[in-house]
Amino acid sequence: MTRLDMINQCFCGESCEEILSSLEHLATQVQEKWVIDAITSMKSANPLGLKIFLRTIREGRSKNIEQCLETEYIAISNLIAGKISHNYYEGARAMLIDKDKKPQWVPSKLEDVTEEMVAKCFSRSFTEDDDWLPLQLPTKTSGTHVGASKL
User: Fold this and answer.
1) Burial letters for 34-58: b for 16+ Cβ neighbours within 10 Å, e otherwise?
2) How many domains does the chain divide into?
3) What are the protein's UniProt keywords (predicted)?
């Protein structure tokens, strides 16, 4: 089996839990460093962030670049606002401020991240309560860019 076959086999799972389980199963069959590294990375990453990332990637397959950028902007705006969790700031604390490299994710396990939590990250109305402005991508007119984003 080629590395690409192994990647496709593991990452075709419907959920982060299925992907992790596939990687763990593969680790019992092959001695590949990248498999162990992937498992380690997934187990140490922000569980909510993993699920947001997977949804973004999967949905992005059928979107154009403008739609992808808007989706990512909405998700990161909701995460930075801290309404779903404070994991964005916890990651910064653990890696950049205290440098203990031991973030305390809430929720701490993939199985504790609900679909409702993930959906809230992608909710456009969720950001409208704050001072967040909608993403305004520049438009190309006569070779110049106008309408730059207000951030």
Assistant:
1) ebeebbeebeebbbbbbbbebbbee
2) 2
3) Hydrolase, Isomerase
